[in-house]
Amino acid sequence: MDGKAQDSSRGLPRRAVPPAMGLLLSMALMNALLYLCLDWFFIAPPHSTPGSTHCPHGHFRMGQMKNCSPWLSCEELRTEVRQLKRVGEGAVKRVFLSEWKERKVALSRLSRLEMKEDFLHGLEMLKGLQSKHVVTLLGFCEDDNTILTEYHPLGSLSSLEATLNLSKYQNVNTWQHRLQLAMDYVSIINYLHHSPLGTRVMCDSNDLPKTLSQYLLTSNFSLVVNDLDALPLVNHSSGTLVKCGHRELHGDFVAPEQLWPYGEDTPFDDDLMPSYDEKIDIWKIPDVSSFLLGHVEGSDMVRFHLFDIHKACKSQTPAERPTAQDILDTYKKVLNLLRDTMVSQTREML
Ligand SMILES: Nc1ncnc2c1ncn2[C@@H]1O[C@H](COP(=O)(O)OP(=O)(O)O)[C@@H](O)[C@H]1O
Ligand SMILES: *[C@@H]1O[C@H](CO)[C@@H](O)[C@H](O)[C@H]1NC(C)=O
Ligand SMILES: *[C@@H]1O[C@H](CO)[C@@H](O)[C@H](O)[C@H]1NC(C)=O
Ligand SMILES: *[C@@H]1O[C@H](CO)[C@@H](O)[C@H](O)[C@H]1NC(C)=O
Ligand SMILES: [Mg+2]
């Protein structure tokens, strides 16, 4: 992930030359430098994680760790992990910044016993879906209702705007990095739809703020999915469909097939509510991507190029919506197209 967060503020040495001459010279030098660096600026390959080969099942590696280590046991969690302060809470877990062997880690504790089933489902999903798309599992203890994961200091996507607003992150608050985040997001959905545990639907996302709270921003400005407590299985060959919860859903963030179809005069009845498939995730992609693109210079230009694919995501008929892979391909094309035009436009200016 080099080239993602570097700053380009290296100063040039000054010499004693006549002011006008010096100005001209340095302008020429700057132009030449700029010209040479354009490719590097715009076409730097994103997301190359050196040595990111994953550990065997049941093992983890994080940060600067050289070797893979087995998931921590109950005993190790109890004696080696020191809880520091609470950093988050949802319906199922209370999350604490903690310390393990001088490393920062995240300790999640079940917050209410009624939610134990969701907690255990989330743990099964974390175990089975370990990959670059999912937060790294470090250990767990079912007896104590605890899960230990890698800590990400930038927190969830809920605080993306506040994070990018900080002066030290101004250099990554660009349409390029924001489109890259949208690509990460769609890659995660694509992974869940073709996961080692089958086609999984991201159910814990009935509104935008809730959805954002399930994903973490890494220090390298990429995304991982963190909360996997509601990932039911779709199996098209056996005709298995899903429902996200047992309550009536409202609003236009959720897909139209998730709404009660029988009108206001018929009271909601979960038994009569039809089930649906992974295309509900596709319906939500334009809203999440648009949030990720934000309102910086170039955001609207990207939105304009994504208009058609996003319109297709909002098809009333689920089967007519594109796949996550289709969307990802389009995002990549748009990123390359806009990079190429920026390079040639800037070259013309010089
Ligand atoms: N590994 C982590 N690093 C940093 N913050 C985290 C981490 N895990 C969770 N959090 C914070 O805690 C919040 C709640 O976590 P989550 O797993 O979504 O709990 P719940 O299942 O109750 O919704 C997240 O939205 C995020 O702000
Ligand atoms: C970020 O990338 C560097 C290498 O570029 C890697 O060593 C580090 O583990 C990554 N950090 C995270 C949080 O992914
Ligand atoms: C970003 O910073 C500006 C100025 O410092 C402030 O007015 C604005 O409210 C901030 N936005 C967020 C989302 O924190
Ligand atoms: C889906 O269903 C088919 C037919 O019933 C079965 O063979 C297959 O194993 C199922 N796939 C998953 C991931 O459960
Ligand atoms: Mg959550």
Automatic annotation (TrEMBL):
Which InterPro entries does this UniProt record tie to the protein? Answer: Kinase-like_dom_sf (IPR011009), POMK (IPR039318), Prot_kinase_dom (IPR000719), Ser-Thr/Tyr_kinase_cat_dom (IPR001245)
Q: Which GO CC annotations does the UniProt entry carry?
A: endoplasmic reticulum membrane
What GO molecular-function term can you cite, just one?
ATP binding
SUPFAM superfamilies linked to this entry: Protein kinase-like (PK-like) (SSF56112)
Indicate where this protein resides in the cell. Endoplasmic reticulum membrane
Per the UniProt entry, the Enzyme Commission number(s) are: 2.7.1.183
Ranges of residues in domain Protein kinase: 81-350
Reaction(s) catalysed (UniProt annotation):
3-O-[beta-D-GalNAc-(1->3)-beta-D-GlcNAc-(1->4)-alpha-D-Man]-L-Thr-[protein] + ATP = 3-O-[beta-D-GalNAc-(1->3)-beta-D-GlcNAc-(1->4)-(O-6-P-alpha-D-Man)]-Thr-[protein] + ADP + H(+)
What membrane topology does this protein have? Single-pass type II membrane protein
| Gene Ontology BP term (one) | protein O-linked glycosylation
Q: What is this protein called?
A: Protein O-mannose kinase
Q: Which organism is it from?
A: Enhydra lutris kenyoni (northern sea otter)
